């Protein structure tokens, strides 16, 4: 059954509105301090080509970890993510895309399909993980940890939710889907993290 353009638009706006909730919740959670020890370096993804993608390989860098999808209203954010990577990569920023089919079935392709689409359409050169689950009990361990540290309200509510990891591996903050990669708030947070201490 086809979905009307109006229905799609309403559902997308609803998802974006729901994603506004984590901002206040993240602030409160950070003020209370982390509820679990450890840092992001202990987690690993599988890369889209099947090779290991351990976050420890990026120790001392700043990570922007984003759950992505190829058929989403926010898919054009790939362009902004690539621009961030090119602008700040030499200073220590690594963007990691984590394709997921969790929201609206908007990432149905294979990992090879996704790589081809991202590279061919948006010139993506930053690391891409294999397609992963990012919410619920079956979520990838990084996402379960992020939910524990920042609180359930910070979990992805839609595609292109963004987690910022500091140079010391600490989960710094989250940005909801509707916040564009080149939004001044994102850029300012990245610059502050790049100025921070590394482990």
From TrEMBL:
SUPFAM superfamilies, from UniProt? Thioredoxin-like (SSF52833)
Query: Which controlled-vocabulary keywords does the entry list?
Result: Oxidoreductase, Peroxidase, Signal
The residues that cross the membrane are: none
Q: Name one GO biological process term.
A: cellular response to oxidative stress
* Catalytic residues of the enzyme: 72
**Signal peptide boundaries:** 1-31
Q: Which domain of life is it from?
A: Bacteria
InterPro entries referenced in this protein's UniProt entry, alphabetically? Glutathione_peroxidase, GPX_AS, TAT_signal, Thioredoxin-like_sf
One GO MF term attached to the UniProt entry:
peroxidase activity
Family under the similarity heading: Belongs to the glutathione peroxidase family.
List the PANTHER family.
Answer: GLUTATHIONE PEROXIDASE
Name listed for the protein in its UniProt record: Glutathione peroxidase
What is the organism of origin for this protein?
Prosthecodimorpha staleyi
């Amino acid at each position: 059954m086809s979905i009307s353009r109006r229905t799609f638009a309403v559902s997308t706006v609803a998802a974006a509105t729901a994603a506004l909730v984590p901002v206040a919740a993240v602030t409160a959670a950070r003020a209370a301090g982390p509820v679990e020890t450890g840092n992001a370096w202990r987690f690993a993804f599988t890369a889209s080509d099947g090779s290991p993608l351990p976050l420890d390989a990026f120790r001392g860098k700043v990570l922007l970890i984003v759950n992505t999808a190829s058929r989403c209203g926010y898919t054009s954010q790939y362009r902004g993510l690539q621009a961030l990577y090119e602008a700040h990569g030499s200073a220590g920023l690594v963007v990691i895309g984590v394709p997921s089919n969790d929201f609206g079935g908007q990432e149905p392709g294979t990992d090879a399909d996704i790589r081809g689409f991202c590279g061919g359409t948006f010139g993506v050169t930053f690391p891409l993980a294999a397609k992963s689950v990012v919410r619920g009990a079956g979520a990838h361990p990084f996402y379960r940890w992020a939910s524990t540290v920042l609180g359930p309200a910070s979990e992805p509510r839609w595609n292109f939710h963004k987690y910022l990891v500091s140079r010391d591996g600490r989960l710094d903050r989250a940005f909801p889907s509707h916040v564009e990669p080149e939004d001044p708030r994102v850029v300012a947070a990245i610059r502050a993290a790049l100025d921070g201490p590394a482990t």
